[in-house]
Amino acid sequence: MEKLWGGRFKAATDKAVDDFNSSIRFDKRMYLQDIRGSIAHAEMLGKQGIISKDDSALIVKTLGEILCDIEEDRVEFLIDAEDIHMNIEKILIDRIGDVGKRLHTGRSRNDQVALDIRMYLRDESEQIAMMLDHLQTALVSLAENHVDTVMPGYTHMQKAQPINLAHHLLAYFEMFKRDYSRLSDWKKRMNYSPLGCGALAGTTYNLDRNYTASELGFIGICNNSLDGVSDRDFVIELASVLSLVMMHLSRFCEELILWSSHEFSFVEMADTHSTGSSIMPQKKNPDVAELIRGKTGRVYGDLNTLLVMMKGLPLAYNKDMQEDKEAIFDAVDTVKLCLPVFADMLRTMTVKKDIMKKGASGGFTNATDAADYLVKKGMPFRDAHETVGKMVAYAIEKNCSLDEIPLNVLNEFSTIISDDFYQAIKLETCVSERKIPGAPGNVKEAIKEAKEYLEKLI
To answer: Is the pTM of this model over 0.90?
Structure first.
């Protein structure tokens, strides 16, 4: 096939080089953005009198027809045409001849590629934002059902203090809330059009860059043509945001995997979101959570690929930058695969409230509240800390809990302890009395605020 850029060459490209150089296998997914960009460019060329309005109209009409044919699977892309940009231009020229050759006036494949990837990722980010919204909604709904579900909170994977499950769930709500915010901030920074930057130094044609930027939904234009075609910060930044999303999913998955084990038995995954063993008939494996945990490393790898690819590139465009697409496409696809299935897994799992509460009753999770009780009776905190530590040592020796120690024995540790000690260290009291903002006793207010936040996103 004759290359659209082949005028300078005497020999045809080697077939193996064609295959190696081609990106159509993975960048064909950007066909919609490429055609939208080309339509805006053609309309602008006609408006500016750079090509005739008749030619502009014919190009726009034919591009619309090509889009319909692609979406109805009537177009076969060619490896010899290298990428989605050259494939569509070749189809255009095949259909309308010399008029189609006018489309590329005042444009380089460099600014075309930069435009398409920005538009594509912007579109994909909106879908991811919607998925994050749905996940946050699922978390709030689950939290509403578990305000009174007591569970142990952990530090160092050791039982620490009693909390409610709602509070634990809302911790992840806050993480995904930040992820949503980061995605929104990313869009503000990347949403500038590189169209008109040309290969690296703009063009002598009187292009109306602001017109095409506005038509394509951008805030404005890239101010520097070199930066416009060689910047991939927005790709790397999105991969970073997606890595954080996956990190938060992975942390939660790790907990769900532990909680669904026989040793914890805090939750049970629905049959619809579990798998069995080929040899052990009793098994019910949390494979969805495990796969999400595993796919997190994949997205981290995509981020690292992008960082390493860009770290040594001089201005402006270099062919290395073609490698950005497979990495960021994979990161986007992976996150879009994980978010919905994770949200569904949460909605369908069974919470074993009694076992969670029993877990909170062990490990002296109310020891801090015992110390606080002594402090409120007038004892300095450090003395209270030491006193309760001795009480815990006694309880371990006697194989009992703090609330099982008789009052007369408690008075041997401190005479200020009275009958109200037992009420003060009940698990429900430990949770409900932590009423300050951000604490589990204030979880109903936190749920209300979370719902108000979600309503603003709609």
So the answer is: yes
Question: What number of other Cβ atoms are within 10 A of residue 76's Cβ?
Answer: 7
DSSP string, 46-106: HHTTSS-HHHHHHHHHHHHHHHHHHHTT-----GGG-SHHHHHHHHHHHHHTHHHHTTTTT
Spell out the domains of the chain, with CATH numbers in brackets.
Answer: 12-105 (1.10.275.10), 110-140+164-207+216-358 (1.20.200.10), 361-457 (1.10.40.30)
In whole angstroms, give the CA distance from residue 291 to residue 269: 14
State how far the Cα of 262 lies from the Cα of 306, in Å rounded to an integer. Answer: 41
Which pLDDT does position 5 carry in this prediction? 44
Instruction: In whole angstroms, give the CA distance from residue 120 to residue 129.
Output: 14
In 192-344, DSSP assigns E strands to 192-193, 220-221, 267-268
CA 331 → CA 132, 185, 249, 280, distances in Å? 15, 18, 14, 34
Strand stretches in 120-265, DSSP E = 150-155, 158-164, 192-193, 220-221
Query: Which residue, among 56, 35, 32, 34, has the nearest Cα to 46 in the 3D structure?
Result: 56
Q: How many CA atoms lie within 13 A of 188 on its CB side?
A: 6
* Residues 6 or more apart in contact with residue 137 via CB below 8 angstroms: 454
pLDDT in tens, 1-10: 555 545 655 5
Give me the pLDDT at residue 81, please. Answer: 84
Distance, in Å, from the CA atom of 22 to the CA atom of 431, rounded to the nearest integer, reads 61
d(CA 91, CA 70): 11
- Spans in the chain with pLDDT lower than 70: 1-22, 458
Q: Tokens in use for 6?
A: 């082949």
Q: Is 85 exposed, middle or buried (0-12, 13-18, 19+ CB in 10 A)?
A: buried
Q: Alpha helices, DSSP H only, in 197-286?
A: 209-215, 225-230, 233-259
pLDDT digits (tens, 9 = 90+) for 3-33: 554 565 555 655 665 555 668 888 999 999 9
Burial class (CB in 10 A: 0-12, 13-18, 19+), 285: middle
**DSSP secondary structure letter of residue 164:** E
Calpha distance 120→35 (Å, rounded)? 12
Residue for token digits 């009793």?
A: 282
Alpha-carbon gap, residue 96 to 102, rounded angstroms: 11
Active site residues: 156, 277
CA atoms of 114 and 436, how far apart (whole Å): 49
* Residue reference for tokens 């084990």: 261
Contact of 387 with 370, CB cutoff 8 Å? no
Q: Answer whether 60's CB lies under 8 Å from 37's CB.
A: no
What is each CA distance from 413 to 240, 371, 395, 450, in whole angstroms? Answer: 53, 12, 12, 44
How far apart are the C-alpha atoms of 450 and 174, rounded to whole Å?
9
- Among 259, 274, 437, 236, CA closest to 359: 259
